[in-house]
Amino acid sequence: MLAELFWERYADQLPFQVGGMEMAAVPLVAGILMTAARKGYNINGFVIHKERKKYGRMNAIEGDVSDAPIVLVDDIFNSGASVEQARVVLAEIDRTIWKVWSVIDYGSRTGIDWQKRHGISVASVYSLGDFGLKLSSPKSVAAQLSFLVRWVNKAASTNHHYVVPKSAPRARNGLIYFGTDSGEMRCVDGASGETRWNFKIAAGKHKGIWSTPHVTPEFVFFGGYDGNLYALCAESGREIWRYVEPDWIGSSPAYAADLNLVFIGVEYASPTRGGGVAAIDAKTGQKVWELPVRCYVHGSPVYAADASLVLCGTNDGELLALDARTGALRWRFQTTGAIKHAPALDPARRQVVFGSFDGGIRGVSLDSGEQKFCIQTGNAVYTTPLIDGARAYCGSTDKYLYVIDLVTGEGIAKIGAHAKIFSSPSRIGRWIWFGSTNGRVRAIDPETFALAGVFQLPDAITSAVEFDPVNQMLIVASTANRLYGISVTPPLAPAQTPGGQPRVDVTALELARLVVDAIVNRTPLPDPEKYRLAGTLPQGGVFVSLRNRTTMQRIGRGGQWTFDAANSSLEMSVIVAATKACANLTADSLRDANASVSLFGPLEHTTLEALSHEKFGIVVRATAGAKLGGALPNSPEYSNERGQYLHALRNAKIAEWEGHTLYRHTVERQAEIPGWPVYGAPFPYEEPELTRFVSRLLDPQQHDRPEHFGSDFTDRLSAVAVTRHANSAKTFTTALLSITGAANPA
């Protein structure tokens, strides 16, 4: 009957062809074609897979698609999601949809918008009203984002055999780095999508580079299924070294700048040597240590700098915690399924969160390996959780994204994707982003869990969505080895604070000014949760200098180095440095001050021979103990590299013969311009305990303030932090306490 109704509408509009999206459209297309044959109509038909086949010819479309106009048929037309997927798949072969015919049209707003956006009309046999029904209230939508593909970068060949997590793109300084199944590590211009350089390895038939690269200012580290770990020059793609001992590497590297080590999971063909976790010298490519395990290690390691641990899962279901310097086993946690993706660190609660093929999402103690919670999903978990404040987001192949309260260990929500999730979630702007095997990229509002936007690509998305801040684009890789640069409208909004208010974008200099203002006015220091750094980020740390406005004589300075930017609050680093710069100054002297802020690029392990006192700042860090100090470039206090090095040693109070590590970093300076207002703008007063602490900073003579920060500073701050913890509030004081306990202040 339905086929007859179709032909009553369209018989006089021949020639055309009929297609549909599996599964519901399969009987419709078949019935329409069979009826056409009986009526003597010569018509072509085809079916589009929801997910491309992984065997045989690995087709996305079954049947030939001719040049004739296309009528797409479906059982229902609601949001337009399935016909949008069909439209995108057909666009890959330069075909467009002429008309859409459905059995029931729900008349939804999103469906109507889809028709208007693409200029495609929808006809139907029935509407909901024909059955006495009406559409229920639409699902909550946080914001309607629109997307535009700016460029596509295609690899030399495609491989659809494996729909699993592969090499995720990494954006750095406007360039995008990613690996392909065809064995290419590519560097792509983030603005145009043009390939800057391409490094080819000897790939196997179906697996090339599944390793997500780790990119530093100098190097690109990645593994390949040729069994090698590579270090390339980030600028040119020239090979620096390769480590050749394993037989295969599918793992992604973790990099410890403070130890000069690259950690990687490895695989062996030997029946007595399944795999291992290895540490490789980042400069030479020489193995420093390796812990062998029974099975392959497809999982990727993560480095916990404050605990000096490397954490990595294995295919026999163990999460291993290893001493980062020696490889000695600290603890192991056993699950009943393989752990094939990197764990995530939750430093606020000192726990590790990870997924397993037994369907569990677990949190275990970073210190002991004791399980804190387990959320059971309906299928294997092959993603890395996203830690966002007090929540974790983790996708499962049961087609849901799980939201977990990290304080209680309880599930908060599960968000359906209608397809398997191999794409590890990312926090970009206000939203949580992830892809799925039906080719859709979704943005979820973390406050309401409403869908903020969805974008359709022709092939499965199994890797994390990346963001290029230089070119303001989403970067998405598909399993077809295609890389997409996608702009978003409206532009990605500021991240939300826990209370739902948008974070304020500020430069590092503006944030430092807020600190000085607060100290002058004896008001609470700015809450880092309320601000977001814009522009250049101090990934390696920050140095704040205060000078008298009239004499330009320096009156205060303070710094904070960051050895693990990914797990640190850069906003807090600025607040810490600015607070220390004010430590021994009175309110009157601060009113007459102006500030400059030096932003450090990532800290790179280096040698004295590789320094340039005109180009790089340096940091020296004691091998034993907490002593460290630095020296900025272009200082009148030294005229060569050795002078800069000795100056840093003096600042760190480290003798040249003592064991220490040397780092270098780029520097960008932000300084106040003439005419900026003096400090002292009014701020609300709300925290007596914190104000008493700030009072000690304002007038060191009145309050017996020591000349330099010492244990008194830390002890005093601890009391404030405990008070605020009791109120479950996140403030600067609690954050600063965690920093002083986990990192070495400058």
Automatic annotation (TrEMBL):
SMART domains: PQQ (SM00564). It holds the Pfam family PQQ_2. InterPro entries: PQQ_b-propeller_rpt, PQQ_rpt_dom, PRTase-like, PRTase_dom, Quinoprotein_ADH-like_sf, WD40/YVTN_repeat-like_dom_sf. Residues 274-445 form the Pyrrolo-quinoline quinone repeat domain. CDD domains: PRTases_typeI. Coiled coil: none annotated. SUPFAM superfamilies: PRTase-like (SSF53271), Quinoprotein alcohol dehydrogenase-like (SSF50998). This is Outer membrane protein assembly factor BamB/AMMECR1 domain-containing protein. It comes from Paraburkholderia caledonica. The lineage of its organism: Bacteria, Pseudomonadati, Pseudomonadota, Betaproteobacteria, Burkholderiales.
